[in-house]
Amino acid sequence: MSALPASRARRARRRLLAATALAPLLIGALGACGYGSEKEDDGKKPAAKAKGAKVDGLDSVRIGYFANVTHATPLVGIQEGLIQKELGGTQIKPFTFNAGPSEIEALNAGSIDIGWIGPSPAINGYTKSGGQNLRIIGGSASGGVSLVANPDKIKTPADLEGKRIATPQKGNTQDVALLNYLSEKGYDVDAQTGKGDVSVIRQDNKEIPTAFKQGGIDGAWVPEPTASKLVAEGGKVILDERDLWEGGKFVITNVIVSQKFLKEHPKVVEAVLRGSVRTNDWIKANPDAAKKQVNAALKNLTGSQLDAKVLDPAFKNVDVTNDPLAKTLRDEAEHAVEAGLLKEPKLDGIYDLTLLNKVLKAAGKPEVKDAGLGAN
């Protein structure tokens, strides 16, 4: 691929995130992912039931998340009953999604109250609403995203020209990451259509492994466990996204809440965050048991579970964390502005870490920071 003229590269970069930021938010629940085998898992157990007094008198709380290993905190916390325990008689009503834009749409529509989600949909959702729809209230995971490709067709990122690379959904965190990476490498891609020097193919996570196996795509920029599933199908990790970030840490999953729900039911939000923190502690202290619970949750949600050759590397590639790693979200937005990818986004007030820091302090843990983007 010949080098692009500077003016053309700048135009390409501007088109990239501008189109991504305007990507329509498509509501849709996650269907069967099609990962792994049908083998029974010893860790499987029924979902915990509400028991005891209702928090703030609320009957239920609607929680959204993905059937991805990058969402290990809600998968384990709900499967193991650790979050429900903190909510007492307030029943969790879980909702699963394929990617972030659809979850943001559900939050905006009032269909969910709290959700685990990636940074790009949170940024876009917050910006489009003029800072009125959500707050990021905690962290959940770092890492767990890779570019995996057919090694016969792609050996290094320099081989991407003319290839077909999948992401889970237009405008989701992996889609934006791939588009930005391609732009930085000088590839010209139209973000709205995905056409250009590299073809960006938007497919559900559940469809990507089959498309890869059948040769419909040459690679994919995807979260776990899809990345490890592609490796198990003969793919090779061309790039671990951790290598693009200082210290190898970047936010892949946040905890968000609707501002209305946060204002009306702070005790419920605090209980969910307490359950999240305790879940992360449990995952770190019991990694083998946590893997079983992730698999059990995937079995319950999708009808199948992961083989060990997929689950083990997928789980290892994700770091659970209470820290929302706010600086990485801020830096991502700043880099986009500096490169001319996006008009100045409204990020002031996107974080409210008050309740999380209250929970952390009570647990004897250090408080986390909002990188100057906290609500007043």
TrEMBL record:
Residues spanning the signal sequence: none
A Gene Ontology cellular-component term: plasma membrane
Alphabetized GO MF terms: ATPase-coupled transmembrane transporter activity
Cellular location(s): Cell inner membrane; Periplasm
SUPFAM superfamilies reported in the protein's UniProt record: Periplasmic binding protein-like II
Any Pfam family hit: NMT1_2
Name of this protein: Aliphatic sulfonate ABC transporter substrate-binding protein
Family to which this protein belongs: Belongs to the bacterial solute-binding protein SsuA/TauA family.
CDD domains attached to this UniProt entry: PBP2_NrtA_CpmA_like
Alphabetically ordered keywords of this record: Cell inner membrane, Cell membrane, Membrane, Signal, Transport
